[in-house]
């Protein structure tokens, strides 16, 4: 990702999302209180919410009228929307084209340490394991942009940090942009080089993460 432009002025969930911003960094976080519009902004970018007059541009292409499944944008939510009747392997393979399925599948299995869980059904997996499967499935489709909606919340710190570094390295090697929602300054610093703060549906600050987040929030 070289540039993501988003424009919107529409009501949703008790607030009015008013944004007109351009993100040019390869990895950006959305930081703000609950109900501030973070998840709504991700849904707008993904094409799951398309209010009249809104615009989404990715690398110079207008996505505003392109359906969600054709945008090449992967979205992973806090509670991953996996297929419960399928195995972990079947969930991941769902987004892989047949021509390069094996090499890509093996890469994702290795990256997210899922080999021992290939045949496990989703209901039998822990929360952290489900998140790893969900991220692998989102990356299987080779998106141009990966949207993460508080995906790392609730994970043990060491496991979270390791997963963040793996996602960052994989996406960096393949030119996949990352836009992640978080309440955790440490997570924002580890994953993202740029941060947007949002409150009451409006962007209140944008810039390098360590400049935007106040000193009392940043990890030492």
UniProtKB/TrEMBL annotation:
Domain ABC transporter: 1-220
Residue ranges the record marks as coiled coil: none
GO MF, any single term: ATP binding
Cited InterPro entries: AAA+_ATPase, ABC_transporter-like_ATP-bd, ABC_transporter-like_CS, Molybdenum_import_ModC, P-loop_NTPase
SMART domains (UniProt xref): AAA
Origin: domain of life: Bacteria
Keywords associated with the record: ATP-binding, Nucleotide-binding
One Pfam assignment: ABC_tran
Protein name: Molybdate transport system permease protein/putative spermidine/putrescine transport system ATP-binding protein/spermidine/putrescine transport system ATP-binding protein
Provenance organism: Terriglobus roseus
Taxonomic lineage from the root: Bacteria, Pseudomonadati, Acidobacteriota, Terriglobia, Terriglobales
């Amino acid at each position: 990702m070289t540039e993501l432009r988003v424009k919107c002025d529409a009501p949703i969930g008790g607030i009015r999302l008013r944004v007109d911003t351009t993100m040019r960094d390869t990895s950006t976080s959305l930081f703000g209180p609950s109900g501030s519009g973070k998840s709504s902004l991700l849904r707008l970018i993904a094409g799951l919410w398309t209010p009249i007059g809104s615009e989404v541009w990715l690398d110079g292409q207008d996505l505003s009228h392109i359906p969600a499944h054709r945008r090449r944008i992967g979205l992973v939510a806090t509670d991953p929307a996996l297929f419960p009747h399928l195995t972990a392997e079947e969930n991941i393979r769902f987004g892989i084209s047949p021509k390069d399925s094996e090499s890509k599948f093996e890469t994702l299995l290795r990256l997210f340490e899922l080999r021992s869980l290939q045949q496990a059904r989703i209901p039998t997996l822990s929360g952290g394991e489900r998140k790893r499967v969900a991220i692998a499935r989102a990356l299987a489709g080779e998106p141009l942009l990966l949207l993460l909606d508080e995906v790392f919340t609730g994970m043990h710190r060491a496991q979270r940090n390791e997963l963040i570094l793996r996602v960052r390295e994989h996406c960096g090697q393949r030119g996949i942009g990352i836009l992640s929602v978080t309440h955790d300054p440490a997570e924002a610093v580890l994953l993202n080089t740029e941060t947007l703060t949002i409150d009451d549906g409006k962007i209140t600050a944008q810039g390098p993460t360590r400049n935007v987040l106040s000193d009392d929030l940043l990890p030492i």
